[in-house]
Amino acid sequence: MKQKLDNLINQIRNCRICESKLPYAVNPVFSVSEKSKILIIGQAPGLRVHKSGVPWHDQSGKELRRWLGVSEEEFYDTDNFGILPMGFCYPGKASKGDLPPRPECAPQWHTEVLSFLSQIELTLFIGKYAQAYYLKSAHGKNLTETVRSYEKFLPKYFPLPHPSPRNFIWKAKNPWFVQEVVPNLQSLVRDILSK
Predict the structure, then answer these.
(1) Which residues are within 8 A (CB) of 65 and not within 5 positions of it... i.e. 6 or more apart?
(2) Is the distance from CB of 140 to CB of 148 less than 8 angstroms?
(3) Share of the chain above pLDDT 70, in %
(4) What is the distance between the alpha carbons of residues 118 and 38, in angstroms, rounded to a whole number?
(5) Cα–Cα distance between 142 and 37 in angstroms, integer?
């Protein structure tokens, strides 16, 4: 089983399906183990993460770890967290923020990767792209509505906004997120990791 997952990981690391559409050299950034308990499905790596090859190794990652209530050591232990973005490589810059994740990655790789992750107890869908792809018609009319109604997706899924510093206006407009949702998220994460 581990050998098959390792082979798949190598295939993804050598993926070139959207190479001609990327602004930088291909560098798929993800991290999974057959023992992962919590899966994080986000958008796509930013430029800093793309260059380092370390998922969530930026300001967004620091904020996400605060929301989760975990240390860097806990976060980067693949027995705890698997990290699978909607797009594996940095998609490039848009007028505001980064471009959307490349649409080739999730259909090409996610189903096969997920078939090896039988220990996952909770999947976090971070941002509108992951929520739309996986929650389909069950997600709300917008990200705020989906996150506000997070309890209806439990115990399997937990939708979250993107923890980017660019989202400070959203966080300021929605104080209920930090006051109510984050403590419930931390409690759930702690319960899963303590098993």
Answers:
(1) 56, 71, 72, 75
(2) yes
(3) 100
(4) 11
(5) 28
- Match 């909607």 to its residue by tokens: 86
The upper half-sphere exposure of residue 161, i.e. CA atoms within 13 Å in the direction of its Cβ, equals 25
Q: Single out the residue of 75, 39, 68 nearest to residue 183, CA to CA.
A: 68
The pTM score is 0.96
Using DSSP, state whether 113 is helix, strand or coil: helix
Q: What gap in Å lies between CA 148 and CA 93, rounded to an integer?
A: 29
pLDDT of 168: 86
β-partners of residue 15 are none
* Separation between Cα atoms, residue 3 and residue 132, nearest integer Å: 32
Per-residue model confidence as pLDDT tens digits over 140-172: 899 999 999 999 999 999 999 999 988 889 999
DSSP state of 108: I
CA distance 187 to 57: 23
Tell me the CA distances in angstroms from 164 to 28, 45, 61, 89, one per residue in order.
Answer: 20, 11, 8, 17
The pair of structure tokens assigned to 67 is 């929301």
Q: Are strands 122-126 and 81-83 parallel, antiparallel or unpaired?
A: unpaired
Q: SS3 letters for 147-171?
A: HHCHHHHCCCEEEECCCCHHHHHHH
Q: Tokens 């917008």 sit at which residue?
A: 142
